[in-house]
Amino acid sequence: MSIALSGAIILKILSYQGTPYSTDIKKNLDVVEETALAASTLNIDVLVFPELFVTGYNIGEQVKVLAQPLDGEICRTLQRIASQKSVSIIIGFPEREGDSIFNSAIAIDKHGQIVGHHRKVFLFGDQEKALFAPGGNFTTFNINGYQCGISICYDIEFPEAIRELAKKGAQIIFNPTANMFPYVEIPKTLARARALENGVVVVYSNLCGEENGLRYTGLSAIISPEGIDLARAGEEPAILISDIPKNVKKNIKNIYSTQLLDLAASKFKNA
Fold this sequence. Notes:
Blueprint: E1 3-4, E2 11-17, H1 25-41, E3 46-48, H2 62-66, H3 73-85, E4 88-97, E5 100-108, E6 114-119, H4 125-131, E7 140-143, E8 146-150, H5 159-167, E9 172-177, H6 185-198, E10 201-206, E11 208-211, E12 214-217, E13 221-223, E14 229-232, E15 238-244, H7 256-270
Parallel strand pairs: 1-15, 2-3, 3-4, 8-9, 9-10
Antiparallel strand pairs: 2-15, 4-5, 5-6, 7-8, 10-13, 11-12, 13-14
Helix pairs in contact: 1-3
């Protein structure tokens, strides 16, 4: 494991990069609890885990068996961990609602309350489209006085998605992901671009290693509103820690790239 530290101590974020135990919910939740216990000794405010970390990402039809509703045992266990360790948790899991299954992520505050919920809007490839129903919107929520939003993996590749969250006041975008080879430029280029063009912090939390023949890129990062890495992992298991200042988005309305995005959107709309 590697640790990277930066910034002034205002909101302390820990991003976990690792390989999930494929289809083993208990072992993955044990990893969350162990990490939360360690985080509590470091005064971490927010823990972030990758896409579908609770079950594993590359599990095919098994996702239909393992998916649970928001009020199921998975979320109740995560709520207990957050409350007992007094740390907020953002994590991906397969969500069932009726006959539909969503690639989802939730945000749980340090009191164990679910304060944020996102269903992946832009599903990647034929396999995801066969397994999941798409989400329909991007919403914001508050953690420790910071306005936050969630996107999941492929969502971040669409400028309009993160722009929507920025327009709703998001200061921090949490992006649980399962980015795989050969797409190494997504975490290195597009994640930085989304931070820079919107003046937001991007927490890009990826899987690493290999799962059922799929090799993940790693390269998780915590990126400043200037598009600069505050912390960056390689391809191996890692823990990233960074401190986010309170005024992280103070000058968002003066950022030139945000103005250009608005102008471009207007031009295309009127074309």
